[in-house]
Amino acid sequence: MSIRITAKARRGMVALTAVAGLALGVAGCGGGDDDKKPQSSASESKDRGSNPSAQEQEAETPLAELRGTDGLLLQITSAERDAGGFITVNGTVKNDGAESVVVPPQTSGDETEVIKHGPSLGGATLVDSKGKKRYYVLRDTDGRPLTTTGLGNLEAGQTLPVFMQFPAPPADTAEVDLQVPTFSSGTIKISG
Question: Which of 177, 181, 182, 145 shows the shortest CA–CA distance to 76?
Answer without folding.
Answer: 177
